């Protein structure tokens, strides 16, 4: 029993692009990537929570069908809003703005969107409201890399903010707070 954080599959956008809260459809290999992600899940989900952005919602629909479990969609599980950086190549974001963000990762908002802290608080509010931390329920959260980092940070994972989660990969937080990479 526990909580699994599953990242969406690769979206239909060029690598190196900042896309945060932009609603992108899954990429051309979605079917195969979704099958792989579902096969890597450690158990049948009793509860599925998902970001409503299409790249997560499509994967949630597939897991829901495979597990016979209904999905609950929550805006609080969306990726961070990167403001004016949305759609820019990361290498074209002004260096001084990136430095401002790096120097105060949790609270800086040089892009005009939301802060990492704001994103973390809204995601944790969803998990709390949905009782996702219950140890007697297998809860699957289909979301984004930023939200996954935020939850891992909350769970006490060292260096959570630099943790890499591949597309279709994820993390399991067991009832004893053991964290294990999936996929």
Please describe what this structure looks like.
It is a single chain. With about 180 residues, the chain is α/β, with parallel strands linked by helices. It has one domain (about 1-180): Phosphoglycerate mutase-like (Rossmann fold, 3-Layer(aba) Sandwich). Helices cover about 30% and strands about 15% of the residues. It has helices at about 30-40, 55-65, 95-105, 115-130, 145-155, and strands at about 1-5, 45-50, 70-75, 140-145, 170-175, 180. Strands 3-2-4-1-5-6 form a 6-stranded mixed β-sheet, with helices on both faces. The radius of gyration is 16 Å and the shape is globular. The chain starts with a strand and ends with a strand. The model has no long low-confidence stretch (mean pLDDT about 95).
- Count the domains: 1
Percentage of residues assigned to helices: 25-40%
The overall average pLDDT, rounded, is: 96
Q: Major sheet: order of its strands?
A: 3-2-4-1-5-6
Name the overall outline.
Answer: globular
Concise synopsis of the structure shown:
The protein is an alpha/beta fold.
Summary keywords:
Rossmann fold, 6-stranded mixed β-sheet, alpha/beta, 183 residues, 31% helix
């Amino acid at each position: 029993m526990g909580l699994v954080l599953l990242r969406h599959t690769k979206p239909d956008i060029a690598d190196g692009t900042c896309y945060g809260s932009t609603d992108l459809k899954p990429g051309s290999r979605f079917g195969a990537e979704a099958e792989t992600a579902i096969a890597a899940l450690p158990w049948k989900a009793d509860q599925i929570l998902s970001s409503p952005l299409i790249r997560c919602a499509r994967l949630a629909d597939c897991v829901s069908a495979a597990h016979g479990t209904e999905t609950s969609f929550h805006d609080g599980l969306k990726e961070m809003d990167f403001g004016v950086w949305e759609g820019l190549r990361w290498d074209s974001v002004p260096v001084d703005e990136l430095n401002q963000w790096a120097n105060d990762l949790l609270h800086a908002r040089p892009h005009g969107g939301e802060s990492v802290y704001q994103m973390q608080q809204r995601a944790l509010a969803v998990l709390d409201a949905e009782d996702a931390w219950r140890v007697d329920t297998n809860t699957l959260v289909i979301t984004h890399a930023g939200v996954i980092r935020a939850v891992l940070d909350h769970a006490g994972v060292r260096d959570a903010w630099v943790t890499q989660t591949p597309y279709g990969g994820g993390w399991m937080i067991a009832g004893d707070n053991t964290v294990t990479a999936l996929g």
